[in-house]
Task: structure prediction
Amino acid sequence: MPQRSTRFEAHKRAFRATIRAFIDAEVVPSFGKWYDEGLVPREFYYRLGELGVLGMEVPAAYGGSGLDSFRYRAVLAEEIARAAVSFGGSSAHLSRCLPLINDLATDDQRQRWLPGFVTGETMFALAVAEPGTGTEPSGMRTTAPLSLDGTEYLLNGSKTYVTGGVHADRVIVCARTAPPRAGDPTYGLSLLVVDSAAPGYRVGRAIDTLGRKVSDTAELTFTDVRVPVTDRLGAAHRGDDHLAAQLPRERLTIAVGAHAQARAAVRFAHRFTAERTAFTHSVASFQNTKFELAACRAEVDAIEAVVDRALTAYDRGDLTPADAASAKLFCTESAGRVIDRCLQLHGGVGYLADSPIARLYADHRIDRIVGGTSEVLRTIIAAEMGL
Result:
């Protein structure tokens, strides 16, 4: 598909060229090994820091670039999907943790955390879900009562599905610091930024997932981990509110990724069918192949239009929760159909675990679950419609 030249200015095109060259030279040759091992090497994050990837949206005062447009993230997502690779746990570092730090951290916390965030020396992860209860606030059992002298929290419990949990140096943990209030089960949850080197902090088993194999997803346990009050992020007992405030951005991030993956899938299918022969003809010459690729192309164009509208709204500061939910719902459901049809066009090759289209297929499947399932999003949209 032709690149929309009007979408990105010259400096964004230069950023794209830099990322593409980096992926081709340093990621693609090693990705098979990383995929088998289930995580990227720790040194990889230092390279992302050197390239400026980790500091794109970090204020210049703390070593970042201070970019205020989300479209650089769109470029990054497109280039990662184009090669059917992954940047490991940096997805959580950038997409889940940085917005919380930018919005909630004190000046002292920014001084302590952001310089290392930019260089990759301090990798962050977010730990919310728990075994057996997921992210439901009323079922959260990880506790962190305040000490008698009011200087630290005593953290106990466990978390699961922690993207980047193996390599993380700091983890933003959602824990119960006070009992819930009547009619308000979300009250009493706080966000604590926990040092992975603290006594009582333990990385459990690495979780083997269907897709996103190199995201080093892990379980974490905390046994009497002492967390200074100065490492609480945001207001005490309002952690769930802080997380909810980030949902529109998170859903936009997922929608952007879905567009990138669907677009890459069509590119893979187009190239594969042009090169593959059946009955002495290229598979791309058959009418069914042409119609399937044309239909997928049209659907990707529709996804792109929705993403562009959401990106514009976000950069203006008026992306509503319902609009973000709608964008994520449409983009992830549509991308799922496109990627599935493109895998079908690969025939048996598409079912090989190490084929790019199979990786896209497996990696994308979680997008209809994380950040709010498609069913939850439909409820949000219906409520906004007054239903």
